[in-house]
C-alpha cells in the first residue's frame, strides 16, 4: 500500500493506494472501504504545520489492519521514526526519505484524546491543568448510526468554560473501514496527534482503563507493558516525540466513576453515546453497567422491577450471555451494593466469578501502571493520583496479577450458577 498526503489550508487529506492483494475480498469481515481520509483542523490552523512524523503515525493508525506486505509513505520522516516503525511492524515499511528533522519539544504539555466519556474525563482530571483536550468529531457519512454526539458536545462546551484548551477536530477515519469503526483502538487519538504538532504536545494521553489495558475485566490478567500491542505502538509514539500516556490504565471503571462523581464534571460528562443530551438512552450495555457502578458509589438502590427491565434490554441480554461477561469484575462489584436485594440481583451476582472474592481493590489504583506514564511526567502524575485514590497494597497487587478465571469457568459451581441464571432469564422473559 502507498500513502500520499495533501494539504489544503486546515485540511489534511491522506490517499491510500492498495496493492491488488489488499483489495476487499468476498466475505471479509473488516475491510478497507475508502481510499481517502480527511482531517480538518480548526479554522485558522494550517495542516502543513503538522509534523511529518506525526502524519506518518496518523497514516499507520488509519490503515494498519489492511497492509499485507509493504507500506510506502510518500514523504520525508526522521530517521528515528523510520527505524522504530521498521523494527516493530509485521510488514515492510518504506519512506520517501529518512532525512527529515525529528519532532523535539522541551517542556510541552499532554494532548488528551478526549471523548467526553467518564473514563476520558477521569483521565483529564489526572493530567496537568495545561493539558490540551482534543475531541475527534466523527462525521455521519452514508448509513445512519445510533451515535449521538450531543453529550460529547455538551462536555466539550463545559470543559472550555472550565478554562481548558479544547480542540474539536473533524475526522472521518472511522469510514476508512467497513463496518464503520476505528481501524485500531488507538486511532481515536489521531486528532490529538495532529494537534500536538501545533500545541507543543509532549505526549498523547488516552482514557484506557485497567479492564482494557491489563484485561482485569476479562478471563486472564495481561501484563500490558510487555504486550505486543503496547510494544508496537509505544515505540512508534515515542519515536515521534509524543510518547503514550495512559493515566487511568491502572484504574478500574469503578475508580474512574468515583473520580468524576467527586468532581465538578459530575452531571456534565457521561459515557452513553446514543441518547440526546441530557438524557442517556437507558437502552444499552454501557448505561446498565455505569448506572450500577454509580448507584453503589452513591449508596442508591434499584428495585427488582427495574432490574427485570434491564434484563429485557437486547444488548444487555447479549452481553450477559457471554462466558465470562466482559467487565464482569466491575459488574460484580456493583451488584455487591448492600442496598440491592432480590432474586434477580442474587442470580446475576452468583453467575459472576467476582461473587467468590473481595473486589475492593477496584476502588484503588494499581502502582505498576506507573510504567505507562512518560518519565518526565511521573512525578506530577504520582502527586495527582495519590490525592484522588489510594494505591493497592502488595497483596491486592499479587491477586490482581494472578487473575485467571479458567478454574471458575470450568467448575461445577460456575456452570451451575450460569445454568440457574439462564433459567431465571427464561422465566422473566416469558
Structure description:
The protein has helices at 52-63, 79-88, 118-125, 150-161, 190-196, 210-213, 228-239, 253-261, 285-297, 304-311, 314-320, 328-335, 343-350, 378-388, 394-401, 406-410, 412-429, and strands at 2-8, 11-17, 31-32, 36-40, 70-78, 92-100, 109-113, 132-137, 165-171, 177-178, 201-205, 244-245. The chain is α/β, with parallel strands linked by helices. The protein has a 10-stranded mixed β-sheet, with helices on both faces. It has a two-stranded antiparallel sheet with strand order 3-10.
Question: How are the secondary structure elements laid out?
Answer:
Elements: E1 2-8, E2 11-17, E3 31-32, E4 36-40, H1 52-63, E5 70-78, H2 79-88, E6 92-100, E7 109-113, H3 118-125, E8 132-137, H4 150-161, E9 165-171, E10 177-178, H5 190-196, E11 201-205, H6 210-213, H7 228-239, E12 244-245, H8 253-261, H9 285-297, H10 304-311, H11 314-320, H12 328-335, H13 343-350, H14 378-388, H15 394-401, H16 406-410, H17 412-429
Parallel strand pairs: 1-5, 5-6, 7-8, 7-11, 8-9, 11-12
Antiparallel strand pairs: 1-2, 2-4, 3-10, 4-9
Helix pairs in contact: 1-5, 2-7, 3-8, 8-9, 9-12, 13-17
Amino acid at each position: 500500500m502507498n500513502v500520499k498526503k495533501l494539504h489544503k489550508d486546515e485540511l489534511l487529506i491522506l490517499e491510500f493506494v492498495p496493492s491488488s492483494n489488499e483489495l476487499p475480498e468476498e466475505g471479509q469481515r473488516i475491510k478497507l472501504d475508502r481510499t481517502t481520509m480527511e482531517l480538518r483542523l480548526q479554522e485558522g490552523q494550517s495542516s502543513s504545520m503538522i509534523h511529518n512524523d506525526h502524519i506518518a503515525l496518523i497514516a499507520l493508525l488509519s490503515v494498519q489492519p489492511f497492509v499485507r506486505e509493504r507500506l510506502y509513505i510518500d514523504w520525508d520522516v526522521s530517521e528515528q521514526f523510520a527505524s522504530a516503525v521498521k523494527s516493530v511492524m509485521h510488514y515492510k515499511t518504506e519512506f520517501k526519505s529518512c532525512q527529515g528533522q525529528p519532532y523535539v519539544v522541551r517542556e510541552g504539555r499532554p494532548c488528551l484524546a478526549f471523548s467526553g466519556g467518564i473514563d476520558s474525563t477521569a483521565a483529564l482530571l489526572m493530567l496537568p491543568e495545561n493539558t490540551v483536550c482534543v475531541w475527534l468529531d466523527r462525521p455521519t457519512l452514508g448509513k445512519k448510526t445510533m451515535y449521538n454526539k450531543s453529550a460529547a458536545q455538551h462536555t466539550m462546551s463545559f470543559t472550555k468554560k472550565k478554562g481548558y484548551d479544547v480542540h474539536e477536530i473533524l475526522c472521518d477515519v472511522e469510514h476508512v473501514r467497513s463496518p464503520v469503526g476505528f481501524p485500531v483502538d488507538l486511532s481515536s487519538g489521531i486528532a490529538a496527534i495532529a494537534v500536538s504538532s501545533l500545541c507543543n504536545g509532549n505526549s498523547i494521553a488516552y482514557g484506557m482503563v485497567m479492564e482494557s489495558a491489563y484485561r482485569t475485566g476479562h478471563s486472564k490478567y495481561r501484563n500490558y507493558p510487555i504486550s505486543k500491542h503496547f510494544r508496537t505502538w509505544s515505540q512508534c509514539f515515542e519515536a515521534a516525540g509524543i510518547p503514550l500516556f495512559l493515566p487511568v490504565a491502572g484504574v478500574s471503571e469503578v475508580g474512574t466513576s468515583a473520580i468524576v462523581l467527586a468532581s465538578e464534571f459530575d452531571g456534565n460528562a457521561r459515557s452513553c453515546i446514543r441518547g440526546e443530551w441530557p438524557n442517556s438512552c437507558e437502552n444499552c450495555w454501557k448505561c446498565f453497567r455505569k448506572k450500577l457502578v454509580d448507584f453503589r458509589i452513591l449508596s442508591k438502590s434499584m428495585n427488582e422491577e427495574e432490574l427485570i427491565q434491564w434484563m429485557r434490554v437486547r444488548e444487555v441480554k447479549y452481553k450477559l450471555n457471554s462466558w465470562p461477561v466482559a467487565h464482569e469484575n466491575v459488574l460484580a462489584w456493583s451488584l455487591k451494593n448492600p442496598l440491592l436485594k432480590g432474586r434477580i440481583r442474587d442470580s446475576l451476582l452468583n453467575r459472576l466469578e467476582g461473587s467468590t472474592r473481595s473486589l475492593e481493590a477496584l476502588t484503588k489504583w494499581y502502582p505498576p501502571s506507573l510504567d505507562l506514564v512518560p518519565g518526565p511526567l511521573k512525578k506530577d502524575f504520582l502527586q495527582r493520583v495519590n490525592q484522588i485514590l489510594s494505591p493497592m497494597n502488595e497483596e491486592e497487587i499479587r491477586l490482581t496479577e494472578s487473575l485467571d478465571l479458567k478454574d471458575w469457568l470450568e467448575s461445577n459451581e460456575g456452570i451451575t450458577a450460569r445454568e440457574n441464571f439462564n433459567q431465571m432469564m427464561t422465566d422473566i422473559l416469558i
